[in-house]
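Sample intake sheet
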Amino acid sequence: MNPSSPARIKIYVSGAVAFFLASVALVAAALVWNARQVALADSATQATRFVAGAEAALNRSLLSVDVLLASMDELLGLSAAMVDWIDSESASQRLRSSARQNLMVRYVALVDAQGKVIASSDAAGSRLALDLPSGFLDEVLRQSVSTLMVSQPVVSFASAERVLYFARHLKMADSSRVVALAELPVASLSSVLVQGVDISGLQVTMERAGGQMLLSVPSREDVVTHTLSPPLDTLDESGPQWRAPARLSGEVALVVYRPILYQDLRISASIPQSDALASWRTERNAVAFTALAFLAMILAAGGFALRYIDRMTQARLAIAQSKATLDQALESMVSGFVLLDGAQRVVQWNRRFEEIFPWLQPMLAPQVPFRKVLEEKARHHLPHASDSERALWIEHRLALQLQPQGPHEQSLPDGRVIQITERVTPESGLVITYHDVTELRQASAEIESLAFFDPLTNLPNRRLLMDRMQQATAASVRSGQHGALLFLDLDHFKTLNDTLGHEVGDMLLRQVAQRLKACVRREDTVARLGGDEFVVMLSDLSEHSSEAAAYARRVGQKILRKLNQPYTLGTHTYHSTPSIGATLMGGAMQPSVDLLKQADIAMYQVKSQGRNALCFFDPQMQIAISQRAQLESDLQAALTGRQFVLHYQPQFHLDGRIVGAEALIRWRHPERGLIGPGHFIGVAEESELIVPMGHWVLRTACEQLAVWQGDARYRHVQLSVNVSARQFRQRDFVARVVEVLRETGARPHLLKLELTESLVLDNVDDTIAKMGLLKTKGVRFSVDDFGTGYSSLAYLTRLPLDQLKIDQSFVRNLGVKHTDDVIVQTIIGMARNLELDVIAEGVETQAQKDFLALHGCQFFQGYLMGRPVPVADLESLLGASSTALTA
């Protein structure tokens, strides 16, 4: 050994110690800093999410109050009455009935310009004493347009709690104004604002843009009115920062605010930095303590290492010269070896041999007979064998050593596989090497598993399934036994992956695999084809096809029940359903691909009929699929062959004028004649032909608008064009619309694009961006089939809409279903408050039109006024309408 080696080793050890000390310190500092940033980021996310939820909740609450106050005009018939005509007791009774529908409102009242109570939902009725904030009544009456006004908080003498007054003025028959008033406890609004959220240190305010505070959580009971500084609008516009003063305590904090629908009101959430970092400080201390412990351990290990080096240096120097060559050769071997002399006694072995057979270490010594080594190995290799069996094994091993035949393998009880190679030495001795090939054998097994089994569920994959199907079909032909094939697809699996992530989706697939295996016999096969598709192959069911089908149906129903049970996916409880297609096997040789195709077709039949069911393959399904494919091909030819035409259904004003028309596509089939969209739109949407078809409708409608510009009879007519979800989500949708308008010369304000509720809310930010760009060009927007979806009022107020279109399913039931009557009235009232036009489609009777007109709807479309007609017939209607109006 080089004398300078210990010195170098000490330098290396010292350097390593210094390196690890510095690394631990840097890692600890990085962890502390990262934990601090994570704590601040988490608090910022909580504040932003809270403010968004509080805004939506408060908007809904205030809108319900606004609707309640605005409806007093219709409830009491104010616009057709004088103040002196109002029966106070009767009006108070109606207000009480109306106020009961809003649990937040303490009471509602109708007061005149001098503050005298005309009627009230309170038990005191018109005798109710009001103590409104100074000037609030005058401020409400001064509004040129009736809007909801909110007062400063005051203390109610009746309940001794802080309240807010909400009011809007209403016109009487003589144009005099009265005020509809509602009293709301601040505590009720505070509970709506906070929504039960538990965020440490959270400070919430509702205030005006100038900083005047209306309510706060925690409540500031010591102050009735309070002006906060600085105003929210003066905060950093680059986004929430951890340097603003908290709105209530003034501490350094993150302040997030959002405006709401009414006046200049703002909602703010403040989280003091000290509260946001409370848990971080505990984590910081723990990291610091752990880092100090690691530093001490590293220093101790370095000291022991240096001392050990000193003590070992002398010993190594003494034996290094004699053992260097032999030790280097032996210890560098990856295999264990034993050297035997001519008498079959142990001469030499290496450390690797001891590692492979650790139980032999106590008995290993020079000149030990190898038979004793084999006897000890037999006790460990054959723990349950008899003495005679062990003796036979030893004799067999000794016989192999006399005439070595090449490498052979031996499996150990712990699962390891050892490859043994024996070679005779010139002195008639023997060199035996032991090589651990466990990993090699495991790799081979894993390669085989990957080739034939799905790595996620450990089920047979498509390759192994197809092989088993081929064997099962051949066996079925010989035996006459029928089998069955079940093709499963999980419903809405893509939605689960998109919302909760692929890891959760993989958890569901593994659980589905376990449940499927529990539903079938050991001899049946459950395979995964990929994605969320599984196949169950049932073999040897019966010689009769009817019995085999009945058994397959029972298994399918069992699978349906099993897979309909809830799944526990981590912290989520999820309900999934399958669609199952089935087909019989046997009776004749059938290609495996055809059998899979039949089961797949049956499964898609289940999908089309509502999912979560079992369906057997029927040849008619194949015919239907072929017809569908032919229809898709015909649609493609229709696009290139210009077989589509537009019909227009006129839209009327209440006074009888035609104000516009909806462009509706028709297919002029060369053999079948004129075909309505209900027969081909579904196929067009699934095959993505709907995109070029939609662009054709848009261009054709714009070309018609351009033609009408030169004729005074038609130049005012608006055309509505339906836009599909696929078409709207195209990246170049806005550019295509602008290009069509420019090329055709159509005036943008006469083009109205109709979007469905589900399309609008699918990706709100993208929708708002595209609508905003087209809105700047003058294009108008309408929400088609409004009321059938799940619109959020918060989103509705953000969309640049011009019109709501009441779905014909509600119009059809007017006067038949009371709930539909209420829905239609609500839609009309909401549209009026949002200053949107309302048009009702599907108006087929005069009674329906009269009901809609009575409740404020001014635009109508339906068979009562006019059916979809070619453009020439529409022009005739327009001409007749113009003549009738001028006569």
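Comment: DSSP finds 27 helices and 33 strands in the chain. The mean pLDDT is 84.
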